[in-house]
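Predict the structure of Polar amino acid transport system permease protein.
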Amino acid sequence: MSLLSSINRKNADPPDDPAAPPAELRVVPARHPWRWVFALIVLVLCAQFAHGLATNPGWDWYTFGGYFFEKSIVRALLVTLELTLAGAVLGFLGGIVLAAMRLSKNPVLAAVSWTYTWVFRSVPLIVQLLFWANIGYLYETLQVGVPFGPGFFRFETLHLVSSLGAALLGLALHEAAYAAEIVRAGIISVDQGQLEAAAALGIPRGRQFRRILLPQAMRAILPSAANELVNLLKSTSVVYVLAIGELFYQVQVVYGRNGRVVPLLMVATVWYVILTAALSVLQYYVERHYARGALRTLPPTPLQRLFALRRAGGAR
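Done. Here is the predicted structure for Polar amino acid transport system permease protein.
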């Protein structure tokens, strides 16, 4: 921020000739001393935290380095990624169906969708996982056939839903409840008048969805969806209650054997941070792709900013 002030009183007086050029003004930069004091305090606190990370022997960076790429940790990391990917795909597919049901003019479909979302958002994920893991206690068999009548095919739930299946089922159904609201919010954010105008021009409904509704809805859906995906990645740590060898469970197994709790927790923490950073980069480029319809000039990518800085430095 800056202020404009006249150099002397003579320049501040109104000019006699209206056609004369404006008086010369001097730019006075605004001072923000307390802002710099606060920034200095933050830097000192950050430096103290970094110094503690480097010098405190309790972090045990040697053990951290030894286990960061250990085979069992890497296998557990792959299980975490598989659960995240499968839960996200199945969850958002279910969320799209639920959102369509909620927006339907059929009151039964809308009520069922609302009830599903209400129940699955109300029950904690860990409780849902334990329910799905014990479904064999509630229903010993499942059958396909006439409702309330004879069945043609019969499955034993004890062998049908394994621990991994229960984890995947719980994550997908839990994710679908949140994805349904994200998709519904994106759809209703598009002005209804645009669809009415497209219909008046005779544009088919499928083309209305692809060319008008979807690009605009995606701009509202993507930030929340990416946030939900990061949340799902961290929620996979809850499936340790089913004794599935994902990242957090494997870390607990290892520090249960060697007693190195803090460095093993840091191994899991750093891997979660790396995966979240990768998802954030992916989110940036996908949002940038769908911003083409709203912005005349897309924001530069980090590489483009770096090249621009190099060109500016070379020009000097």
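DSSP finds 14 helices and four strands in the chain.
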